Every structure is written in C-alpha cells, then in structure tokens.
C-alpha cells in the first residue's frame, strides 16, 4: 500500500504459536514503516523435513503466454484489475513490486476496515464474494502456498496448527483448511484473512479484450484490515507473487507509469506488460544489474545507487556505500518499489543533496507548505500564466554499470496546489529514509518512475530504464484515449 507521506515505522508483532491461531507475516514495505531485521519463522530453523505434496498443483508446466494489463493511477499508486472467480468478479488492487502476497477484500457486508475513513465514500473499494464463485475453494494446509503465507521453513507447521494428526502429517493427506493468517504493513497496517484458490483471468498479448484462464490461483481472502482499504497484487519474487504463480519469474515484466496529472482519469491507463514481450528488443535501454540479498529480503528487487548529479554538473554527489552493496547481514542496496510513492535516501546523503539543491535555487522557500506537507524543500514560483515555467534544476540518478537516469523535472518538483496570487508552490518530492540500519538503505519510488518504461528483466537479473511518453506508449496498446 501507499501513503502520501512517508512514515518509516514498522509494527513488530510478537506472538506465541501455542496461543494464536493466526500466523503473523511481516512484509517489508518502506513506504510506511521501518524495515524489520528479524524474520518471523515458525517451526525449527533449518529443520530436516520431508516434502509435503501440494495436491492443487499440477506437475504439468504452466503455459506462459505474454500478458498486457492496464494500470490505473489512483491516489498515490497504480491499480490493476483482478478478474477472479466463476462467474468473474472484478476487484481493483494496487500493483506492488515490494511484496509477494496478492489479497482482495472479501465479503459484501462483513468486510471491515478500521481507520479507513478517507476511503469510505469511494466506489473503488469493491469486495470479492467467494460464495458467489463456484470455482472458489479454501486452500488446504498441505499447500506450499499455505506454508509460504505462514512464513515457515517447515511445511508441517500449518497442518499442525490446523489440528492434523501426526499420521496425516507424515503422509501429506490432511485436508484441513490452511489456518487464517495475519499480514502486517507499515504504520500499524494489518490484514487478516484466509488463503483461497480460484480462477484468475488475464489479458493476452493479442488483445486486451481476449483473456485466458489461470486455475487455482492463490490469494488472500481478507475479511478485516487496519488502514488497508484496498487490496494488493504482489509482484515480488516469492512463491506467492502473481508473476511467480503465472510462471513468469524466468522472464520478466515492464511498466510505464503515466504522469500524476492522469490520476483518477478513467480514460487513461498505464501499460503493464508481462512475459517475453516485456524484455525483448530493449537494446537501447539503460540496464543496471539487480543486486541479490539472499540473507534478509531475497524476494525484492534491488539496485546499486552510486550517486546523484544536479543540473548539468559533471560532479556526482556520491551516495553512501550501503546504497550500492549489502553488508554481511544482507542489509543495504536501493529497493525499487511501485508500492512506495516517493524516493527515499539515507540521512547523510539526503541532507547533503538538500543542501546542494537549496544553494542552487534562488526562489523563496515556503515554510507554510514545508510544515503542511512534510517535504523539506518547497519554493514559491512566480506564475502569471499556465503552464507555470521555472528554473528549478534537473536531477539524475547514477546506478551501477555507468547508468545515468535523468529524471523528468516533474518527477522531482511538483506543484502542491493551483496557482494563487500569481505564484505556485512546488516541493521537492524526495524524502528521508528513517533508520536505514536494517533492510534497504534507500527506495526508488513510483512517483520518480513516471513517464519512463521500467523493465524487470528477471531472466538476465537486470533492470532497464528508458524515458518514454507513456500516454503515447499506452495508446499503441489501445489503453489510452487522448
């Protein structure tokens, strides 16, 4: 999930396996919390266990046809429509490269979201009803996804929690439902639900009007949440993620986020391409290698940030060493995350960047907007006629492999309101990474990824960038009406 302003705090959930019937899985999500370094693992660590068969998975390889899905800008993120069930029910959820679990709100009347007043009157918050789908089934405790959602390295844990006998544990024939799970988000966000399987329909490359069916797709059917009113489609590298379940982890995907001005425009969609089409014919792209963090958070996408340059200066403000490499505990690197709104940098580097920018900008500061928004640099720009032009400097990110990504100016400075009194206030939309000791040292957020195609080339373990008119790109796929 996204938040308009960054609050880097995580809720650490303490629990006892014997006292709770739900397992808590703590998700890394820097847009809303401090990054937790203690993984929650049930059962015996590194236990020698027998494999438990997953009766819902076929041994036949899944056919992986390329997909094209429209994304819709909404508030501070991008929504993908999930076509679930038989007959189909369409649920819009946030597309999130910073998590694995896909979940949807469940129950027309029973779904409860605490502290979600901002969403009360939004028609977007639709719910999924398993009872209306004859292909919907509750997942069982022997399922590999059940083990994964309970964050266990011991496949017997979920069935033990479900009350299976030792005999059925050993032969893998316990058919009891997968126990309910709890999934924590930043700033105290929490979802509680059950793991469900149903048919998912996705759009093919041939036409956005043509769909194919994916049976037994696993997702969370969530009945109650705290500060999480809209579901999420996880695009991480874990077994629960949408690309993993659809068989695309050996290929990749790409997205081209439309600018913020298109948010809430029903006629505008950003293209999400999944499969071979997303990673082919990209010779002109700027590619930087993915960093691997096998110790702490292996299911997320990391980049190595070397530094930042301002305007046309050749001097690069060097980033801290933990932005381009991991330490011995697996912490560091720069996470690229569509579920984090703004880019975040560790404190020394961030403050140095602010100081350099402020020394170059001659416009008067707006203390009022800095206090109101929480952004550290806001400026009053003269504006007599629209559009308002300015002399604010450009920003370029320097990644490993000599990749220089020059960000569009509107990705860095944004007008916080309509012009008033012949002036407009624009703020610098980078933020500080609170407590970067654990987890990623920084985050490359979705706002700074606007109007560029971002390619997740999982086959070659690299991420590519190309500045793009995403509206024109979407129109090529019939997703954008000008």
What percentage of amino acids are in beta strands?
A: 25-35%
Q: Over the alpha carbons, how many angstroms does the gyration radius reach?
A: 23 Å
- How many structural units, i.e. domains? 2
- The secondary-structure class comes to mainly beta
Give the helix proportion (percent range). 10-25%
> The CATH topology of the largest domain, please?
Cathepsin D, subunit A, domain 1
SS field, number of helical segments: 8
Cα shape: globular
Mean pLDDT level:
83
Query: What's the CATH class label of the largest domain?
Result: Mainly Beta
Taking pLDDT < 50 over at least 5 consecutive residues as the criterion, the unreliable ranges are: 1-52
- The CATH superfamily label of the largest domain reads Acid Proteases
Q: State the distance separating the first and last CA atoms.
A: 29 Å
CATH architecture of the largest domain: Beta Barrel
**Total number of β-strand segments?**
28
**Main sheet specs:** 16 strands, mixed
Structure characterization notes:
Pfam families: TAXi_C, TAXi_N. It comes from Canna indica (Indian-shot). Belongs to the peptidase A1 family. Residues 78-466 form the Peptidase A1 domain. Keywords: Aspartyl protease, Glycoprotein, Hydrolase, Protease. The chain has 482 residues and is mainly β. It has two domains: 23-274, Beta Barrel (Cathepsin D, subunit A, domain 1), CATH 2.40.70.10; 280-476, Acid Proteases (Cathepsin D, subunit A, domain 1), CATH 2.40.70.10. 11% of the residues lie in helices and 30% in strands. It contains eight helices and 28 strands. The strands form five sheets. The chain has a 16-stranded mixed β-sheet that branches. A hairpin with a 5-residue loop joins strand 8 and strand 9 (190-203). The protein is globular and about 75 Å long.
């Amino acid at each position: 999930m996204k938040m308009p302003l960054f609050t880097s705090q995580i809720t650490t959930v303490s629990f006892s396996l014997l006292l709770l019937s739900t397992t808590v899985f703590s998700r890394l999500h820097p847009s809303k919390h401090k990054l937790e370094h203690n993984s929650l693992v049930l059962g015996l660590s590194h236990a020698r266990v027998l494999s438990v068969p997953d009766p819902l998975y076929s041994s036949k390889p899944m056919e992986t046809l390329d997909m094209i899905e429209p994304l819709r800008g909404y508030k501070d993120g991008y929504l993908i429509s999930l076509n679930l069930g038989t007959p189909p029910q369409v649920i819009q959820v946030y597309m999130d490269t910073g998590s694995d679990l896909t979940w949807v709100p469940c129950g027309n009347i029973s779904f409860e979201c605490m502290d979600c007043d901002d969403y009360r009157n939004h028609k977007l918050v639709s719910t999924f009803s398993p009872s209306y789908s004859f292909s919907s089934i509750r997942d069982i405790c022997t399922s590999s996804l059940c083990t994964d959602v309970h964050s266990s390295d011991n496949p017997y844990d979920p069935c033990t929690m479900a009350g299976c006998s030792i005999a059925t544990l050993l032969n893998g024939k316990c058919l009891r439902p997968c126990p309910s799970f709890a999934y924590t988000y930043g700033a105290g966000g929490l979802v509680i639900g059950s793991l469900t399987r149903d048919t998912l329909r996705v759009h093919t490359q041939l036409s956005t009007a043509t769909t194919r069916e994916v049976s037994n797709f696993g997702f969370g059917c969530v009945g109650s949440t705290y500060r999480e009113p809209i579901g999420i489609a996880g695009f991480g590298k874990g077994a629960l993620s949408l690309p993993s379940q659809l068989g695309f982890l050996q290929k990749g995907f790409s997205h081209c986020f439309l600018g913020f001005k298109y948010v809430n425009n029903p006629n505008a969609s950003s293209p999400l391409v999944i499969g071979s089409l997303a990673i082919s014919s990209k010779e002109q792209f700027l590619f930087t290698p993915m960093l691997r963090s096998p110790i702490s958070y292996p299911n997320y996408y990391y980049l190595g940030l070397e530094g930042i340059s301002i305007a046309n200066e050749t001097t690069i403000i060097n980033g801290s060493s933990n932005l381009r490499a991991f330490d011995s505990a697996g912490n560091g690197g720069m996470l690229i995350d569509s579920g984090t709104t703004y880019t975040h940098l560790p404190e020394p580097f961030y403050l140095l960047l602010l100081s350099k920018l402020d020394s170059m900008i001659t416009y008067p500061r707006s203390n009022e907007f800095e206090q109101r928004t929480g952004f550290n640099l806001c400026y009053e720009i003269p504006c007599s006629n629209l559009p308002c032009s300015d002399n604010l400097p450009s920003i370029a990110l320097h990644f490993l492999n000599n990749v220089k990504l020059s960000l569009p100016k509107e990705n860095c400075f944004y007008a916080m309101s309509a012009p008033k009194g012949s002036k407009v206030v624009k703020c610098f939309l980078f933020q500080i990474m609170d407590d970067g000791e654990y987890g990623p040292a920084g985050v490359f957020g979705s706002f700074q990824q606007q109007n560029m195609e971002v390619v997740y080339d999982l086959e070659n373990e690299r991420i590519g960038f190309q500045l793009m008119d995403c509206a024109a790109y979407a129109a090529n796929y019939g997703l954008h009406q000008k």
